[in-house]
Amino acid sequence: MRSDEELETHLKAGIAIYNSGEYHAAHGAWERHWLKINKKDEDKLFLQGLIQYTAIIYHGMNRNWKGMEGLIKSSLRYLEKFPQNYQGIDINGIKNYLENIENNMQSFSQKEIPKMTYEGETIEISDLNINSTYIVARVLSDEISDYEEDIIVKAIEHIRENPKDRESRKIENLIIAFAREKSFRVNAYEQIKRRIEIQKEKFEDIEKLFGV
Q: Domain of 94?
């Protein structure tokens, strides 16, 4: 995957997570790509601004005005370096929102948190391609204590190693459901976990059979 494609994949995943209401988790999608970028790359500054933006929302929801204050100034410093629209993101919209709540942080309202768009379109998790959906699944399984990211990682590895396998298609559909369907998330995760454990047991049986 080219670096620009990888950035787009992570950007869209984070936006969709954010738009689903998992504001704090959204930074996870961006941070995974941010860690890979050279510190002199302008996209690193761009992602840093977005990561801090979601942290501001998180602090606002917890009425942590002091935490919000410093991050608003910092996020604006990062984002002011970029044009009105950068990498498909409406930078001006984010800056205007931050400037408004900076003037009256205690008026922060969860109901007024703006949606994020990509190329002018509001993106939901159901709009994502499979690679962005995998990122969403990994981020949510890492963010939410009820799940283990390692299970999702192993499931994705199994799919990629066995792309034409019927079981892989079933696991892929469960990962999509885990990412998209909050009400079905626990059930989907348990099925993914069970299927991965079965695959592990089959592999171990083959190893024993052939003395590997």
A: 3-125
